[in-house]
Write a structure and sequence with these properties.
Elements (H helix, E strand, L loop, with lengths): L3 E5 L2 E12 L5 E2 L3 H10 L7 E11 L2 E5 L13 H7 L9 E3 L5 H4 L15 E4 L1 H7 L2 H6 L2 H17 L3 E3 L9 E5 L8 E6 L4 E4 L7 H6 L4 E2 L5 H18 L2 E3 L8 E7 L2 E6 L3
Parallel strand pairs: 5-6, 6-7, 7-8, 11-13
Antiparallel strand pairs: 1-2, 2-4, 3-12, 4-5, 9-10, 10-11, 13-14, 14-15
């Protein structure tokens, strides 16, 4: 898949494919699998239960920033982001800033190599303080399923390796023109990143949707991966309304197409239109 870029003021934002992961429509709640499958078919989705994985490279004003890192190829899923980054001529050592939407494995898996060392040795790693608190909570770890415990272990190991280079997001811009946007619910510290310039604006909204066609048309539909489904629904409805009203360009980690889209009001929900140009 060819990398697609958008110029937002001084920043060039490039969608980096990490590959695909399978996720059954049965994971959705608030809609029947039949109705969900029909939405996918009408949208031309060949494999209704397939999720694409993106990360985003932001270059400009002397900075090289990466938003999420893909899976790292864990469990033979995804793992293409690093090669796609290097195909653009960007070595891992050149990345100075890592912005994490949250710490699920398909977003942080690419931060450590197979030997457990940092893939991006010169980067500061930013994430929300509530995200750090969640994954470091021993009580939550003790209550977690075996699968979730592996996620806790991966998050803790990654944070430990990056150590002193971990930075906590607050309400200040990361650099001038790039602002963190709290979008809690999918995880407690789930965060989007908004780029504002006089010419254009873009929000990279992380996992606001996993099945874009379904969850924009029906924002009340949640997925089993959401830690707080009601909070996730509220964040989704709020940012969808804002994206439509402000005519924002939107990027999402489980988008298809180019990795960039517009949100249009339609019926009781919205319609996502991928921006291919």
């Amino acid at each position: 898949m060819n990398a697609v870029s958008r110029q937002i003021g001084d920043f060039q934002v490039t969608a980096l494919s990490d590959g695909n992961m399978s996720a059954s429509l049965d994971l959705l709640s608030g809609i029947t699998t039949t109705d969900a499958g029909e939405i996918q078919r009408r949208a031309g989705v060949a494999e209704p239960g397939n999720l694409h994985i993106y990360g985003y490279l932001i270059r400009g004003r002397g900075r090289t920033m990466l938003v999420d890192s893909g899976t790292g190829g864990a469990n033979n899923v995804g793992g293409q982001l690093s090669a796609n980054l290097q195909a653009l001529g960007v070595a891992p050592q050149a990345v100075d800033t890592l912005l994490l939407t949250h710490a699920h494995p398909d977003h942080i898996g690419g931060l450590l190599d197979e030997a457990g060392k940092a893939v991006y040795p010169n980067a500061q790693l930013y994430l929300h303080p509530l995200e750090v608190a969640f994954w470091q909570d021993d009580g939550l770890l003790a209550q977690a399923s075996e699968r979730a415990q592996r996620n806790f272990a991966r998050a803790r190991r990654t944070l430990a390796i990056y150590g002193e280079r971990v930075r906590l997001l607050d309400d200040k811009p990361i650099v001038e023109g790039i602002q963190p946007v709290p979008l809690p619910g999918h995880t407690p510290g789930h965060t989007g990143f908004r780029i504002d310039t006089p010419q254009a604006s873009l929000i990279i909204w992380g996992d606001i949707v996993h099945f874009p066609y379904i969850q924009t048309a029906h924002p009340e539909v949640s997925i089993a991966f959401d830690i707080n489904p009601e909070q996730a629904k509220a964040s989704r409805k709020r940012i969808l309304a804002q994206a439509a009203q402000e005519k924002l360009l939107v990027a999402g980690m489980h988008f298809g197409g180019s990795g960039f889209a517009r949100v249009m009001p339609e019926g009781q929900g919205y319609r996502i239109v991928y921006s291919e140009a």
